[in-house]
Each structure stands twice: as structure tokens, then as C-alpha cells.
């Protein structure tokens, strides 16, 4: 099941720093997105040019409703880069590219880069009108469709081929099963199916990496294994990683989760080498939450006031009244 598109609420009341995708979708015209999905669904040999980030969700939704062929999509400059920081939307687009459903390119930064056009053999659709009141118009007269379609295909041919710096979902989940386990992979799959496209990114305190560390802690995984899965080998990690981020980028997220009492990082013996850190969820709300609810739990905890060490403030004397074995560990991990 695809995550909600631009027509649904992608904002999160607990987040004061929305993702790039959320910002783009909030600024988009819901009626235009719905019109584009309806206009494209079921058509073959689509060629699209000038596509902004906000219109990728309706294009994906229409593509899922269409069998066969490859749709050629040339986005505006910067869109492919943004997809590399968009966990939910980026993995969805990467999956479509990996399946051959979509060929992704970037149009040149030229005067007509803002013109959004969709061409198929017997029809042309164009987005027209002022920025806040755009609409989709259709042309089906052969004498106009033929030259207009040729111009669209020429713009696409001149565009630069792109890759998405996010793994395809099928590869992401298969590697999660192999490197971690199927329980973790099932949680990640549930999150990707349920979260809106703009729910989480690389902005704010709770990022996609924070979410993945918390999911791993619910299953007591080693931080090293999570790093092997999430990295790409460029940071000295395993080449089998999926390349979401460099493994060392997880350090701040892990420490933030520990400081807020959501997880522990327990040092485990590792032979003659350095001790390994085992991630373990210790917060009842995090442990009880369904995978789809984990992001909300994290944002709720991160919204609480913290002290100078980044730990959630507790009433005076509260920890001292608890048995020593239940008191919060305050180590550097």
C-alpha cells in the first residue's frame, strides 16, 4: 500500500521542523495532484518533464494503477538530491526505478524548466496558470499532439540521467532480513507502508536515522549490525549496506535516544576487539507501540523539556525514590 499523497495531511503536530518533502507537499495544490493522478493512470508511454518534488507522489500513484511499459520522468533540478534525503518517498521512487517502471532524469536549468508537461502518443497534458491557482489542460487534436509530444520527448532526451541516493524498498528489506533479522525488516516495512511521504526526513531532532535506531533497539540489535546495514562501505563499513547514511552518522541519534530514556546502549564483550554496543529499548511506550506508532512516540518524547545534558527533566528527587536497580543509567553511551 502506497503512503498518502499530496492530497492527505503529511504534517505532524509534534514536529517543528518538517522534512523537505512535507514542505513541498504542504505548498502543493491538492486538486492539481488529484487531477494529474486521474489523467495519467492507465496511459502508456508517458513522458513527463519539469516535474517538481510535490508532483512525484501522484505520478507514483498513477504508475501503480498502470500496467507495463516505462514512464520517462524528467524532474526539476534538485529533486533527485532531495529524494536522497527522503526515506519514505525516496525508497518508493527508487523501487519504481529498479523495477523499470520509471526512468528518472533531471532537466537542464533553463528558461522553460518550470513548464510541466505530460505526453503520451495521443495526448498532451500541461500544467498552466498562476502558482497558487494551477490547473491541468489537455490537448488531443492530432495536429497539435504530434509536434508538442515531439518537443516533450526532445526535452527528456536532453535531460541528465539520475540515480536516487536511497535504496529500492525491496533491496532495503531483503538486506535488513539478512544483516539484522526478519522482525526488524517487518517493522521497517510496516513503517514505510504506513507513514506519509513527508513524515520524516533529515531535518529536526527526529530523523529517519533516529527512527531506525529506535526500531533496532526494540529487537536488541547490535549497533555494529545496524551500521553494516545502513551504510555503504565508504565509511569503512560493510559493502553489503544499503547506503541510507554513513554508519558513523548514527552516533548522535543513539546518544539522543539514550539521554531521553528511550533506549540503552549496553557494552558487550567482543573477544580481543573493542566492546560492541547492544541497543535495547527500555521505555514502555516505545516497547508497546506498533511499528507505525514509533515515530509518534519519539516525537512526543523529544518534545519534552531537557536539562543541560539533553536528558528529559524529572521532578526533584524522583529517581532517588526508586530502587537502585531501576534507576536511570547515566553513562556516556
Core attributes:
single chain, 13 helices, 7-stranded mixed beta sheet, 333 residues, two-stranded antiparallel sheet, alpha+beta, Endonuclease, Chain A
Explain how this protein is built.
Helix 2 runs parallel beside helix 3 and helix 9 packs across helix 11 (250-259). The chain folds into 2 domains: 20-161, Endonuclease, Chain A, CATH 3.30.870; 169-326, no CATH class. With 333 residues, it is of the alpha+beta class. The protein has helices at residues 20-27, 30-40, 56-64, 79-83, 87-98, 142-158, 169-179, 182-194, 208-217, 223-230, 250-259, 284-288, 294-302, and strands at 47-51, 71-75, 102-106, 117-120, 123-128, 135-139, 160-161, 263-268, 276-281. It is built from 13 helices and 9 strands. A 7-stranded mixed β-sheet has the order 6-5-4-1-2-3-7, sandwiched between helices. It is elongated, with a radius of gyration of 23 Å. Helix content is 38%, strand content 13%.
Enumerate how many helices there are, as a single number. Answer: 13
**What is the CA-CA span between the terminal residues?**
37 Å
- Listing every helix as H and every strand as E from the N terminus to the C terminus, the arrangement reads HHEHEHHEEEEHEHHHHHEEHH
Mean pLDDT: 88
The outline comes out as: elongated
- Residue stretches low in confidence (pLDDT < 50, at least 5 long) are 5-15
Give the strand line-up of the largest sheet.
Answer: 6-5-4-1-2-3-7
Residue share in helices? 25-40%
Main sheet summary? 7 strands, mixed
Multimeric organization: single chain
Overall strand count: 9
